[in-house]
Amino acid sequence: MQWNKSIELFREAVKHIPGGVNSPVRAFKSVGMDPIYIESGTKGHIFDVDGNEYIDFISSWGPHILGHAHPAIVEAIQKTATKGTSFGACIPLEVEMSKLVKSFFPSMEKVRMVNSGTEATMSAVRLARGYTKRTLIVKFDGCYHGHSDGFLVQAGSGVATFSSVQNNGVTTSTVSETLVAEFNNIASLEDLFKKHGSQIAAVIIEPIMGNMGIIKPEENFLKEVRRVTSEYGSLLIFDEVITGFRLSAGGAQKLYGVIPDLTCLGKIIGGGLPVGAFGGRAEIMDALSPDGAVYQAGTLSGNPLALAAGIAMLKELQKPETYPALQAKGKAFSDGVGRLIEPYADHLYYAVFGTLSTIFFRGEPVRNAEDARACDTELFAKFFRLMIAQGIYLPPSQFEAIFISGAHTEEDFARTFGAIEKSLKQLYK
Prior knowledge:
- By secondary structure, the protein is of the alpha/beta class.
- It has two domains: about 5-70 and about 320-425, Aspartate Aminotransferase, domain 1; about 70-320, Type I PLP-dependent aspartate aminotransferase-like (Major domain) (Aspartate Aminotransferase, domain 2).
- The chain has 15 helices and 14 strands.
- The strands form three sheets. A seven-stranded mixed sheet has the order 4-10-9-8-7-5-6, with helices on both faces. A four-stranded mixed sheet has the order 1-2-3-13.
- The two termini are about 25 Å apart.
């Protein structure tokens, strides 16, 4: 493949944009390439400025669960835009969206719309502190909850590659108010509560880690996290920005039967436009302004375009055939990849949950962030370059998930399996 136009664009971009990108993972630094500039997308494919076509397994990092440029979503955006793009006022779509979200997530008795997953998690933590009158927050090593200061402590996603808490603009006082436990190790959480329990406002967790690769909770781990938080009167916040609407109609909390006090959503809920939401028990949510003392606001929160796109998306997901079809595609993909990975079990570990998966370049199970960090990232980078040259667009980081969409076809999978087989033979010849 030739990427001449992308190279030219990047050379120009670095003159005007820090690092040439508006989000670090797009820089392709961890895979030893310059970024590729995308011009368009349709269904399960994207096209770059040089005319190259790719099977897309990023799906805009999750939002496009039904594929790019889904007709119902495009139509909703176009129709709404003709009436106005933003009013800074209450609109009917807010009510419709809130009711839709609650139909998927009954634990969200009241819902507040925001503009991103980061805003959702940031606001949920502020609310937890205001509601409990406590200061400390517990997160888990490797879980990524957006780029708010406190969440960058031992975080996943791009933070695992591009940053360190010692030199990233996060103050020592912020670090001191963020406690870190180990995922799948309930004893580490219990130890923190034994020392600081009366000061801990909330525990925030990705119920399935999606930003250190896919790492599933072990049996009863989430139930034990719920038990500990309840015993100490702390709130439990589920960050379902990735897992919400993807794993099931009710997210990870429905699958595992664990009900959090607050839930954060993003990505899929906006149909590809900037949006987020958080919600939970009414008595907690009522602590938000204007009724309560915890301030949270946003000029574009609940704007017409994002809500129209999100409503169209959720209505598609409500159709009875949608999730069975998604689950079938997830299984077809994971079964195929699993067969290809099996001969390389001494070198690779394949983690999968529904339409999410990760090929870890490590020949042992990955249970937590420490295990993930032990992966051979240089070998992953070589694998990525071999795959992209064959038109397979994987996440450009060992620490991100592969996303399957409802628009991927059997032909897409067959082509991808062929590319994986060829690439692995080259790597391990």
